[in-house]
Specification:
The protein has a three-stranded antiparallel beta sheet with strand order 1-3-2, with helices on one face. Helix content is about 30%, strand content about 35%. It has two helices and three strands.
Amino acid sequence: KLYIGADIAPEYTGKGIATQAYKVFMPFVMQKYSTDVLYLEVLSTNSRAIHLYNVLGFVEIDRYSMEKNNELIESIVMKYENRN
């Protein structure tokens, strides 16, 4: 499985940078590694990222709980399949 991810500094969020970045590096990574499938994980509390990933074509395939700072949080595993 090939997992991808990117973090955008808070002062640059909401400007479309993540959308542009994913649209560039997703095809690059898929071509470089000869795959049509990508995975990522996102915290269930990160609604902005989840929205972006849905717009890009990722779908939720799994959820699990984990502990962070003595608090249980949920992580979502998402999958993208290139259907071209």
